[in-house]
Specification:
It is a single chain. The chain has 741 residues and is an alpha/beta fold. 34% of the residues lie in helices and 14% in strands. Strands 1, 2, 3, 4, 5, 6, 7, 8 and 9 form a 9-stranded mixed beta sheet that branches.
Length: 741
């Protein structure tokens, strides 16, 4: 048989296998093959609902306003995180970051077994899935997630007639563009006509900003960028129309979190989490978007239910007719007959770049409750990237000069309250805290309970200090690599060989292709593969949170390697226990719940904190130290606190030693505490060094003995440690490695 005939026969078998695979996946689906819609996501960055269709003053967004007139506009959509990477981690998995350990900004997450990127389910059902181009998932983007992920990824690259799920990420509105002077951006801005440019003097500023020309310029630039972005959305929609696909494509438009300006991005107020969400379902697809009641889906309409980002993945699967995996924590709001109305949506803030924090929030249709677990940390922590924004510099300048008044002064308080409560209808900017108002005591308790229940039900791991969690989730700094696939010969025939492909990594997906092939596309494995004579089978293993395995190959005549037993790693040794199992065995999350609300109780909780200093689990000891630090405010409490915390300077866990040193510095015992912090600056753990540097950088003149460590930190392998050391030297009036202190 000629090579060409081999290829033709193999391609026939491949197509037959694909049909069987898709048929198996579709079992139990609600949507037939002929009705399967295309799905297009248009995501933008760092933008609140600052569009004309949402009534934003001064907005110039004609393309999106026209799109909204053809679509349903959702008025209460919220991200789960007010910053990009954690937000996108939830979007791609349908799981809360705080449940899968991807909550700290720019961490290297290690999601537990069973967590998959949701496009995998679409690919298994026959969809062509593309991402153009941003990933930013807090873990390496697994190859199994996308048929194509690049700046050339497009629905146009799919096989004829194949349904698609395509993502286009527009970065024009990112915070970096507000302050950018890049020639290309300035050229684009110069194309705005007189009716499109925004006048800084006419800006309508939120009350929490100082009203200065610098702040107004940033606000106007941000609006100009939204107008540029609107053009890009219009061009993408025109491509869809040109290709004749608009009538069979459900289009989503949304932003990854709120406005990219200070006190919006990175904060769990509405300014950081409330986003636009506009979805267009063409007439022929409205029975899919709103089954049973397609008449409820009408152009130009609005829907006011609470929508959370954790709901996006299950909703896309529902629209595609794919059963939503039970492991997903969201709920579909389209594609089902009677979507269950949410009562609450939740948000979290954890470490933001080099600034540690721990904040959780819950919102219903009217109220937002915020719980500050680190009230001793100020709102206005230094974040080098954020400090590049002219608005932030202006705000800091006025704070240092004592010239802030009213709502603009709130962000520079030295401490945060333990709890905050806002009436979002009466106070849309959330500047009037009602947590201490007796008239709102019942609401406060209800919202506090709702947040606590959510943290318990979703097994929020944010209370585990980052150095402890890093050590728990993996060995070393780099993600593990999935085990290379192995091949087992099942049978042979005149048509070729039937081969089973497996990876020893639990939860890994296997991708495969035949070479040479009529179309060398990589597909997700669903069962044994028929390999025609003369063709080579190539395979690769892919798991969320792991690096993809090396490729492996097999063809007739090769001696198959015996498959590895489950639990064997790439090097042949046993894999570590998955961190959720380790946490469940230790019971540490259950014990940490007892500390969740101790600072709400006040000083009466101190005795329980002192007892917990002897707990065998380091995270419990850590939070006992933090609670003592925040509760021991009166003179009569300070001496017992000092006595209890001194022994913790030699605790077995670095994070406990650092927390105790921080507290003792604030309690007047810096002489004993600073040497401990200096020593921790040499800790092999990046996150431990960062914690130590942050404490030293925040204690003012007490940190002067650490100047040489700060200088050494300028060469640290961690970019965040470098930033903290640079800021600390600047505050101490010391710059450069050769400057004497």
């Amino acid at each position: 048989m000629s090579v060409r005939k081999h290829v033709r026969a193999a391609w026939g078998l491949l197509c037959a296998g694909l049909v069987l695979t898709v048929a198996a996946v579709r079992a139990g689906e609600r949507v037939g093959a002929s009705e399967r819609p295309n799905l297009l996501w248009i995501s933008v960055e760092d933008m609140s609902p600052d569009l004309g269709c949402y009534g934003a003053p001064g907005a110039v967004t004609p393309h999106l306003d026209r799109f909204a007139a053809q679509s349903m506009r959702f008025t209460h959509a919220f991200s789960n995180s007010p910053v990009c990477a954690p937000s996108r981690s939830t979007l791609i998995t349908g799981r809360y970051c705080t449940s899968i350990g991807t909550h700290q900004m720019r961490c290297q997450g290690a999601p537990p077994v069973g967590v998959r990127c949701f496009p995998e389910y679409l690919r298994e059902a026959g969809y062509y899935c593309t991402n153009n181009v941003k990933t930013d998932y807090q873990f390496p983007p697994p190859r199994a997630a996308w048929d194509e992920s690049s700046n050339r990824a497009h629905w146009r690259n799919r096989a004829p007639g194949q349904p698609f799920f395509a993502v286009f990420n527009i970065t024009t509105t990112h915070e970096s563009q507000v302050r950018s002077s890049a020639p290309e951006l300035l050229r684009r801005l110069a194309t705005l006509g007189p009716g499109e440019r925004h006048d800084p003097t006419r800006a309508v500023l939120p009350p929490y900003y100082p009203d200065t020309s610098a702040v107004r310029r940033d606000w106007a630039r941000n609006q100009d960028l939204i107008t540029l972005m609107d053009r890009e959305v219009g061009a993408l929609l025109a491509q869809l129309e040109h290709d004749g696909l608009a009538d069979n494509t459900i289009v989503w438009f949304w932003s990854d979190h709120g406005r990219g300006l200070p006190r919006a991005k990175r904060w769990v107020y509405d300014s950081g989490t409330h986003v636009p969400l506009i979805i267009r379902a063409p007439e022929r697809l409205r029975s899919i978007a709103s089954p049973g009641r397609p008449e409820d889906w009408h152009p130009g309409g609005t829907r006011n239910e609470l929508i959370s980002f954790v709901d996006f993945a299950p909703t896309v699967l529902s629209l595609a007719g794919i059963r939503v995996p039970r492991a997903m924590q969201g709920q579909p709001f389209l594609g089902v007959r009677s979507p269950k109305a949410r009562r609450y949506v939740y948000a979290h803030r954890d470490r933001m770049d080099e600034a540690p924090d721990l904040i959780r929030s819950v919102r219903d249709h009217r109220y937002r409750y915020i719980r500050n677990f680190m009230p001793h940390m100020p709102y206005s922590q230094d974040i080098a990237y954020m400090n590049e924004m002219p608005t932030m510099r202006e705000w800091r300048r006025l704070a240092a000069a004592g010239q802030l008044t009213g709502s603009a002064a709130l962000h520079f308080r030295p401490r945060k309250p333990v709890e905050e409560l806002f009436d979002c209808r009466a106070d849309p900017h959330q500047v009037r805290d009602l947590a201490q108002d007796p008239a709102h005591r019942v609401v406060l308790r209800r919202m506090r309970r709702a947040l606590g229940d959510w943290m318990a039900e979703t097994r929020d791991v944010g209370l585990i200090p980052e150095p402890e969690f890093d050590a728990l989730k993996r060995e070393g700094d780099e993600p593990a690599q999935a085990a290379t696939p192995t091949f087992a010969l099942l049978s042979t025939s005149e048509h070729g060989a039937r081969v089973r492909v497996t990876s020893a990594t639990p939860g890994a997906s296997v991708l495969w292709t035949l070479h040479p092939g009529a179309e060398a596309r990589w597909r997700l494995l669903s069962g044994p593969i028929q390999v025609a004579a003369g063709l080579r089978l190539r395979a690769q293993a892919s798991r969320t949170g792991f690096r993809d395995s090396p490729e492996a190959g097999w063809q007739a005549g090769d001696a198959p390697a015996p498959p590895r037993s489950a639990g064997v790693g790439e090097t042949g040794g046993p894999l570590r226990e998955e961190w959720p199992a380790a946490l469940a065995r230790s019971g540490v999350l259950r014990r940490l719940r007892e500390f969740r609300d101790l600072d709400v109780e006040g000083a009466s909780a101190l005795s329980r904190c002192y007892s917990a200093l002897r707990d065998p689990e380091a995270p419990v000891r850590y939070w006992a130290v933090v609670r003592i630090h925040t509760l021991a405010e009166g003179d009569d409490a300070r001496q017992p606190a000092r006595t209890a915390l001194r022994p913790l300077l030699s605790d077995g866990a670095a994070v406990v030693r650092i927390a105790a040193a921080r507290a003792l510095c604030d309690l007047g015992e810096g002489a004993a505490a600073v040497p401990v912090l200096v020593k921790e600056m040499r800790n092999p753990s990046d996150s431990a060094r960062l914690h130590a540097a942050l404490v030293l950088g925040g204690i003012g003149e007490q940190a002067r003995p650490a100047i040489s460590q700060f200088r050494g930190g300028l060469r640290d392998r961690s970019e965040y440690v470098k930033r903290v050391c640079e800021s600390a030297l600047r505050r101490l009036g010391v710059t450069g490695e050769n400057t004497t202190g």
